[in-house]
Write a structure and sequence with these properties.
The structure holds 2 protein chains of 2 kinds. Chain A contains 12 helices and 4 strands, in the order E-E-H-E-H-E-H-H-H-H-H-H-H-H-H-H. Chain A has 2 domains: about 90 residues, STAS domain (Transcription Regulator spoIIAA, 2-Layer Sandwich); about 250 residues, no CATH class. Chain A is of the alpha/beta class. The mean pLDDT of chain A is about 90. In chain A, about 70% of the residues lie in helices and about 5% in strands. The N and C termini of chain A lie far apart (about 85 Å). In chain A, helix 7 runs antiparallel to helix 9 and helix 11 runs antiparallel to helix 12. Chain B is an alpha/beta fold. The radius of gyration of chain B is 18 Å and the shape is globular. Classes of the chains: A alpha/beta, B alpha/beta. The interface between A and B is medium-sized, with 29 and 38 residues.
Chain lengths: ~375, ~250
């Protein structure tokens, strides 16, 4: 089999004769396209021409399509425009003759800014669906809980304990490490800046109150949203994708009860525990930095901490944890159930799950801050 | 349907493939001639897909030689086209973009020509221009197979591997798909190696049939010859109750 470069040469005459040669195959697609582009103008002007393909050694669909495309410039007597066509290639040219006849649908070319505004409007308007679906899944979850309270035997204890181990026990090391570092950084920054006013000792108040009230629970909740919320969405989403959720339904099992309730309950139990561990780790980190960097002995740090914080600070932090867990779990389940057929959709919903749950955790934290301030806690 | 040349397109000799202690392909030899459609039959899990994947290079071989007709100067995707059992369409691209992937990777062509080639391929496999805008998740089983076939043919390869092309299709769609493969094979002069369980595909479009049992080819030749084989598995396969139901009306 020869594999020479294709060529197309015009030979003078009327009608104009073009001699095609070489291998008109996909391998030479680039060369073929430039041959076509060079000759298209000429062919469109003359309209009366013949393409002699006797020297074409190989022909495949790409080459055949380009020859067909050229012959379409002739108009009426298209079939006669290709001469000296060998038998095996004739079938292919015949096949090409009927292809690509339909016109591409016209694409509406609206104004750029208008299109952008339209997209913005649609996105904002579509976000109401998020609210409705969130309320929907909250309702379904509450109804499932109510059913469980009346029939406690249908509660999936094994599944819940397994999930608890995944999202609680196995998350302890990373949560402790990160909150430890955050506590240490807050203490270091506090000492560095408070030193100018000679107020280093107030670093203990800052670390204690900040960690117990806000930072501890917030950091842990954000970490859990990224670590466990995304896993929930991916698990439920891939089950939805492979029709496992439908299979459950046909067996008379409620996916909410089998899959979602154990996961959310595990999260609601795990998050306060992780918050407690995280807060301790942050205080430990703060104390260590105060000792090594600020020269405050651990005994003094503990004594000052005792004066600065009360149980109230701790309560304010820990009360928020189960609510944040509930929001993370609900958003993860909602996004998981939205997954459609493709792997791309799974990725999109997982991203959306993490972004939305972190956003909602921060909004919730703000609402709690207003609430606690107004009741004087 | 053979084009008369006696060139060997795929040459497999003494091939051994296995996983762990389990040997799937055991000293298998097979020659596929250029321009023929060869059907490959075998028990489920008997190594049809393993053989095909080893020839394509997706699985490592333990020993033996595999030689596929040289196609110098062709990009990898142009040597052969593969139709996977589930289609294996890229789910984030629409049908047209799926067909254009091998073209875009190998050449820099204008968008217009890419679109024309993709539409031509879609129409060759019996779909319309509009179907090109659909995402793989919106395609039915038969359409997925057609788009996958169009993608396998994107660079006009000389050899086409089909892994159970008609599985999961209803008899009408399967018949249409067989006809389609037959027409494309004749117009493009393809060599086709097809793993299948579909007895009617074997009967209608395959020039030769290779029966794979116990890791070797136990019968090879045109379908009537293979049906006449004495090998117990081949007998059970072609003369079982289901096979007889299909062939009974023709054979008094």
């Amino acid at each position: 089999m020869t594999d020479e470069v294709p060529d197309l040469r015009a030979v003078e005459g009327d009608p104009l004769i073009l001699r095609a040669s070489g291998a008109w195959t996909a391998v030479h697609a680039e060369a073929l396209e430039s041959l076509f582009d060079r000759n298209a103008g000429l062919l469109e002007r003359t309209r009366r021409f013949r393409i002699d393909v006797s020297a074409v050694s190989q022909l495949d669909t790409v080459g055949a399509w380009l020859i067909e495309k050229m012959t379409r410039f002739t108009g009426a007597d298209q079939a006669a425009a290709v001469t000296n066509l060998a038998a095996p290639m004739a079938g292919l040219m015949q096949e090409m003759h009927g292809l690509n006849r339909s016109r591409p649908a016209a694409v509406s070319s609206g104004h750029r800014v208008v299109a952008w505004l339209e997209m913005l409007g649609r996105t904002v308007w579509a976000s109401r669906i998020d609210v409705i679906e969130f309320l929907d899944i909250l309702g379904a979850f509450s109804a499932a809980l109510w059913r469980l309270l009346r029939h406690p035997r249908s509660f999936r204890l094994t599944s819940t304990v397994y999930q608890l181990s995944l999202v609680g026990w196995q998350a302890v090391p990373i949560m402790a490490l990160i909150t430890f570092l955050i506590g240490a950084i807050i203490a270091q920054q506090g000492i560095f800046h408070f030193r100018r006013f000679g107020a280093e000792s107030y670093v203990v108040d800052m670390v204690g109150i900040l960690v117990l009230r806000e930072i501890g629970v917030l950091i842990v909740a954000i970490m859990v949203a990224g670590r466990s919320g995304s896993a929930y969405t991916a698990e439920i989403g891939s089950m939805k994708m492979r029709e496992e959720i439908d299979a459950l339904k046909t067996m008379g099992l409620d996916p909410m009860e089998v899959l979602i309730v154990p996961r959310i309950i595990a999260l609601v139990i795990a998050l306060p525990i992780l918050t407690f561990i995280g807060s301790l780790a942050a205080l430990y980190g703060g104390g260590l930095v105060a000792w090594l960097y600020g020269g405050m002995s651990p005994a003094i740090f503990i004594a000052r901490l005792h004066e600065a914080v009360s149980v109230t600070q701790f309560e304010v932090g820990i009360i928020k944890a189960p609510f944040m867990a509930l929001v993370i779990g609900l958003v993860a389940a909602m996004e998981g159930l939205r997954v459609e057929g493709s792997a791309e959709s799974l990725g999109r919903q997982t991203t959306s799950s993490v972004v939305k749950s972190i956003f909602l955790v921060i909004v919730l934290d703000g609402l709690f801050a207003v609430f606690f301030a107004s009741i004087g806690m | 349907m053979t084009d008369g040349t006696d060139e060997v397109a795929i040459h497999v000799q003494d091939l051994v493939v296995g996983f762990g202690r389990h040997t799937v392909i055991d000293h298998l030899s097979l020659d596929v001639m250029s321009g023929e459609i060869m059907g490959l039959v075998g028990a489920s899990g008997g190594g049809k897909s393993v053989l095909m994947r080893t020839i394509i290079g997706l699985l490592p071989k333990r020993s033996g030689t595999i030689a596929v007709a040289p196609a110098e100067g062709r990009p990898a995707a142009g040597r052969w086209g593969v139709l996977f059992q589930q289609g294996a369409l890229f789910s984030s691209l629409n049908a047209r973009q799926n067909i254009q992937v091998p073209l875009r990777e190998s050449f820099s062509l204008s968008e217009q020509l890419l679109d024309e080639i993709a539409t031509a391929k879609l129409e060759m496999v019996g779909l319309s221009r509009e179907d090109g805008d659909k995402m793989p998740s919106e395609l039915s089983g038969g359409m997925t197979k057609r788009v996958a076939l169009a993608r396998a043919l994107a660079l006009d390869p000389a050899i086409l591997f089909l892994d159970e092309p008609t599985s999961g299709l209803d008899p009408i769609a399967a018949g249409e798909f067989d006809t389609l493969i037959n027409i494309l094979q004749r117009t493009l002069g393809l060599t086709v190696l097809m793993a299948t369980h579909d007895l009617s595909s074997l009967a209608t479009i395959c020039d030769r049939v290779a029966a794979l049992a116990d890791g070797r080819i136990v019968a090879l030749g045109p379908l009537p010859e293979v049906r006449a084989s004495d090998h117990p598995w081949v007998k059970a396969y072609f003369h079982g109750a289901r096979a007889e139901m299909i062939h009974a009306p023709h054979q008094p």
